[in-house]
Design goal:
Layout (H helix, E strand, L loop, with lengths): L1 H8 L9 H28 L3 H10 L1
Length: about 60
Amino acid sequence: MSTEKAMHKTWWKCIDLPPRLKKAIEEQERLNKEKNNEDAAEKNSKFMTAEEYMKQDLEN
């Protein structure tokens, strides 16, 4: 069962794809990772306390 779930998530990795498709998949994964990092940073900045904000402002 677990191998079926793993295969479902990574089915394209098990198939021999042309280089242009492999490059496109890698680029899409990189863009998704960057977007997730930006979203996480934005989420963290939204919940900053006033004291933290003032300290950050003084440091800059």
